[in-house]
Write a structure and sequence with these properties.
Number of helices: 4
Structural class: mainly alpha
CATH architecture: Orthogonal Bundle
Number of domains: 1
Strand order of the largest sheet: 1-2-3
Distance between the termini: 24 Å
Oligomer: single chain
Largest sheet: 3 strands, antiparallel
Length: about 120
């Protein structure tokens, strides 16, 4: 998943003043939002709210039941979409924030694979 250092590089931050907010608020919210947007709504043995960092398998919910998918690494476009959303949440600071169009464009192909269309 995305660590604090990667998120700070993306946000172009050199100070440590907001590490807690980035690591405990913005980054987990962005990761969880993108996972839900794509449709990966449950994680093996974990609730998303508890430990997003420990995702190594995803249960992709389908009408016929859960489908277990090995995920040794998140696809790079999805990781980038998560970083874009992290930046958007960081900049908006509590104002309404939607998933940026660029993040949707990066994530949509993975969404389409599962649902046959966005």
């Amino acid at each position: 998943m995305i660590d604090l250092t990667t998120a700070k590089l993306h946000l172009r931050l050199e100070h440590d003043d907001e590490d807690y907010l980035i690591e405990q608020v913005y980054l987990p919210a962005a990761i969880q939002s993108m996972i839900r947007y794509i449709g990966w709504s449950e994680v093996t043995g974990l609730l998303l709210e508890e430990k997003v960092e420990e995702i190594d398998q995803l249960i992709l919910l389908e009408s016929g039941g859960p489908l277990l998918a090995e995920t040794p690494a998140m696809p790079r476009p999805v990781t980038m979409a998560m970083l874009l959303l992290t930046g958007s949440l960081y900049q908006s600071r509590g104002r309404e924030s939607e998933i940026p169009p660029a993040a949707k464009a990066l994530a949509d192909p993975y969404r389409k694979e599962m649902f046959g269309g966005a």
